Amino acid sequence: MIINPVAGRGMYKNGLGEALHVLHSAGYAPTVRFTTRAGEAVDIAAGSAGYDLVCCMGGDGTLSDVVEGLMRVGGDARPPVGYFPLGTANDVATTLGLPKGDSPACARRIAGGEERAWDVGDMGNGRYFTYVAAFGAFTDVSYETPQQSKQALGHLAYILEGMNRITRLPHARCRVELDGGVTEEGDFIFGGVTNSTSVAGLVKLDPELVGLDDGLFEVSLVRYPETLSELNALMGQAVSRNLSGPALKVLRSSSVKFSFEKPISFTRDGEPGGTFTELTLTNRRAGIKIIC
Predict the structure, then answer these.
(1) Alpha-carbon gap, residue 289 to 292, rounded angstroms
(2) Any idea what DSSP says for residue 12?
(3) Is 26 helix (H, G, I), strand (E, B) or coil?
(4) Among candidates 113, 93, 108, which has minimal Cα distance to 20?
(5) CB 3.0–4.6 Å: which of 77, 223, 235, 258 could bond 49 by disulfide?
(6) Burial environment of residue 280 by CB neighbours within 10 A (0 to 12, 13 to 18, 19 or more)
(7) Three-class SS of residue 206?
(8) Taking residues 101-123, what's their average pLDDT?
(9) Once rounded to an integer, what is the mean pLDDT over residues 155-175?
(10) Which secondary-structure segment (H or E) carries 271?
(11) What is the pTM of this model?
């Protein structure tokens, strides 16, 4: 049991004893480890070979670290993951329909649940992501603003409220190469590679579109609107959830290569993911198993 004590403002204290009792009653002998620094969950999970189960109590960032550590464990020795979501966005919990902030309920699900395969994103530099790697405007809105602002800016059409915002939106010229020789080029205000139905509570994808273990990413691209008509087209697509238009589209691919004219910062599962002029993301199909 890997616990991030600062996730969710220390919510781990609520029901932890009962959760451990549930797991013990199911036949497990829990070993509890608290993280004391950023990235420590990676190292703890990397030493989990031989355990029957690795539980993660924290936010999506903590889960991401645990998954990265597990990817360093040999495939046959890699234990499944039980997730106790305590953070703010909890996109993985939303995708899987897991109870948030209720540790005893999560423990009961883990004790009686089934393993589900989950694709893992490989950033090619020894780093992995669980559900999103992204660049651009909406990563700032999603991860760098206070919670009350996240709630207020709940829709793409609201974020793009008028022409006066356009000059302040970050954007980058980029070439995007996908499977089968598919290439997209242009000036983008957002590019996201996801394996989730929810990204920071702002971007929602149809569950029918997303296969969590199909070996394919969903690649979301939003072009920079240079004119009022292009802005209106983008807002229209956002409102109607048209994901295949010229301004906003979602494609599917097992690998994605981004090439930029200048270094661009990425987020990785809601945390800083590095700065790149060229980055290839590869889908590691069914890289982990998560209990749900």
Answers:
(1) 10
(2) G
(3) coil
(4) 108
(5) 77
(6) middle
(7) coil
(8) 94
(9) 64
(10) strand 271-291
(11) 0.85
Structure tokens at 211: 């296969």
In angstroms, the CA 93 to CA 191 distance is 23
* Interatomic CA distance for residues 184 and 180, integer angstroms: 12
Three-point CA angle 14, 20, 23, nearest 5°: 135
pLDDT per residue as tens digits for the range 62-109? 999 999 999 999 878 999 999 999 866 677 888 888 888 899 999 999
Which stretch of DSSP H or E encloses residue 110? helix 103-112
Q: How would residue 155 be classed by pLDDT, with cut points 50, 70 and 90?
A: very low
How far lies 245's CA from each of 54, 176, 252, in Å? 42, 17, 15
What is the 3 state secondary structure string of 39-99?
A: CHHHHHHHCCCCCCCEEEEECHHHHHHHHHHHCCCCHHHCCCEEEEECCCCCHHHHHHCCC
Beta strands 128-129; 217-223: pairing state: unpaired
Q: What angle do CA 260, 263, 264 make, to 5 degrees?
A: 80
Backbone angles phi, psi at 62, to 5 degrees: -65, -45
Q: What distance, in Å, lies between the first and last C-alpha atoms of the chain?
A: 16
Q: Which range, 126-135, 208-217, 279-288, is most confident? A: 279-288
